[in-house]
């Protein structure tokens, strides 16, 4: 929705009365920006009474303003900044109720003693109503890569000429990124760039947070001079539970099977290991998780795909049908490029098992899908 907008009708020099062409869309306690963005004397104030006709009652402005200067409502006029020196540290106030710089498109805050390993966050403040926005996501001081949310948002704003956030918020742009990711997820491909490995801790057997599906589980057991590495056989959860239903069964370091319990978010291995010194490596497909914070990065290898989709949606909000069509065509082209990426074969059928040889069973598992 467009912000209420009007124009100064009579030159303002001082006082608490501002004359405008039309105040009908404004309300008491509104924050207003007089002079627009990019004007050296632009400044904010608040309406201290219900406006009437062409008159606004305001907190006195610090500069004179000429007729024909713009007047528009804004949501916030100040901001807070905090920092911490490491991810697990506590937040420290850096700037409190700092006024925005309306003379240009950007407001910069310089932390002169900051370091590249620091983390930052900010929130907006409305001095008329004494209300705050939510804190932003945590942003690392390191340089943003092209796949990071902060970098992609900046590119979308350049593409759509919305550097001053007049049309859309960062949160809305991030929602467009996530919708574009959902489109990729709906294609149900075994994308090569989603394959990953994770070490599974034997004492907890917890799955990775971005787990989607398992491909195989590698087991490495070291005892003195003995070191064995082989793949466990996969069983469905039902078959696994049936096979290892005996809670009093003897334990062994010669593991045979594994299963995935997605309800409890754990890997199950059998038999129960005698020790917890084993190294378990899960080869799995990562999930495409939602983007939330500015430092989040998309796992999709073409971040331009997300940027094009978000640029199209912003262009549509700006009622620019030509730009919308152009960016959607670009999104479609990039989606086709991604779709042509070959699905990876995680289980090449290259070795045959000699039936009846137990050692080969342990090394190559009990299927025709052996080692890559």
Concise account of the structure shown:
With 372 residues, this protein is α+β, with helices and mostly antiparallel strands. 20% of the residues lie in helices and 25% in strands.
Walk me through the topology.
Blueprint: E1 5-7, E2 17-19, E3 31-34, E4 43-46, E5 55-57, E6 70-74, E7 78-84, E8 92-99, E9 119-126, E10 131-132, E11 139-140, H1 149-160, H2 170-185, E12 195-200, E13 211-223, E14 226-231, E15 233-234, H3 237-243, E16 257-261, E17 266-270, E18 279-286, H4 303-317, H5 321-339, H6 358-364
Parallel strand pairs: 15-16
Antiparallel strand pairs: 1-6, 2-5, 3-4, 3-6, 7-8, 7-9, 9-10, 9-11, 12-18, 13-14, 13-18, 16-17
Helix pairs in contact: 1-4, 2-4, 4-5
